[in-house]
Amino acid sequence: MKAKLGPAKTIRGLIRILRGRPAIPPSLADNELLQVILRRRSVRAFTAQPIPEDAFAAILEAGRLAPCTVNLQMWTFAVFDDARWRQVFGRPIPFHGQRAVIVISDSHRYRSVLDEFRDYPLTEYTLAVMNASLAAMNMNIAAEAQGISSVMLSETGRSGILDAKYLKGKLNLPDGTVPLMTIVFGYARGAYPPMPPKLPMEHILLDGEYRQPDPAAMQSWFEQMIAGFNASHPGFSFQSQLNLYHGKIEQAEIDLHEMVFSPRVETGGEE
Ligand SMILES: Cc1cc2nc3c(=O)[nH]c(=O)nc-3n(C[C@H](O)[C@H](O)[C@H](O)COP(=O)(O)O)c2cc1C
């Protein structure tokens, strides 16, 4: 399908987006944690209100205590206020957030006592990514629970996995570490954006046999994605955004391959 829509499909897509609601059983409507999880949105506009130190400390603590494979805690959190971000990157935190955490998958630290995955770099990397991402989500929810909004970034502003090599150099990180994403935190400026199009539950559940994609449902989702992008990025085309990703992903593929596999090749024969 083309990444371009006529006016009728754009309007239809936007109406569908605006109709989207989390499905929560009435019996659980008062559950505070569920409310926090379901109301969370990626927020991309923040006020200048600072985040109190104790609130930020609680966010980091939620990351530290996240579940992880064999309790290996294969993560590092690089923490920033705006001054520090400017010092390192020469620009403000993306979207003028007040705090940022770069979540780094880290299989360097635990190796000082254990070298279990030396010959299995892909498995080790995947586990580290899974676990660091769970820590990221814990931080995200801990922020939301305090009325602090956030957005995770893997691309915007050279902030994540697509610029992992650049970030690794900027932060002077050792081999075995890969910057995955930046989480930007702040108080939301204005109302939360509408929920972006989520696939219906019956299309993502495997309850018996894997269900092949439903062409109509997938087309509807894609139309809503384009309509939503067009509405929030006037003057930019969805296709130009895809082209941008394409270029960056091509380079990231090379960089990541080097970061994940090359250090192992270089050190593999030493012991
Ligand atoms: C790992 C990860 C990376 C993301 N990278 C970006 C990004 O670079 N730029 C951006 O604007 N949003 C980014 N997002 C936010 C997603 O676009 C957003 O989560 C998605 O559209 C769903 O919207 P929601 O978070 O409001 O449910 C990222 C989200 C995740 C989880």
Helix-strand blueprint:
Layout: H1 7-19, H2 32-39, H3 53-64, E1 75-81, H4 82-89, E2 99-106, H5 121-145, E3 149-153, H6 164-170, E4 177-186, H7 201-204, H8 215-232, H9 238-267
Antiparallel strand pairs: 1-2, 2-4, 3-4
Helix pairs in contact: 1-8, 3-5
The protein binds flavin mononucleotide.
Q: What does this protein look like?
A:
By secondary structure, the protein is of the alpha+beta class. The protein has a domain at 29-192: NADH Oxidase (3-Layer(aba) Sandwich), CATH 3.40.109.10. It is built from nine helices and four strands, in the order αααβαβαβαβααα. It has helices at 7-19, 32-39, 53-64, 82-89, 121-145, 164-170, 201-204, 215-232, 238-267; strands at 75-81, 99-106, 149-153, 177-186. It has a four-stranded antiparallel sheet with strand order 1-2-4-3, sandwiched between helices. Helix 1 packs across helix 8 (215-232) and helix 3 runs antiparallel to helix 5 (121-145). The longest helix is centred in the C-terminal third of the chain and has 30 residues, at 238-267. It is globular. The chain starts with 6 loop residues before the first helix and ends with a helix. The model is unreliable at 265-271 (pLDDT under 50). Flavin mononucleotide is lined by residues 41-42, 44, 151-156, 181, 196.
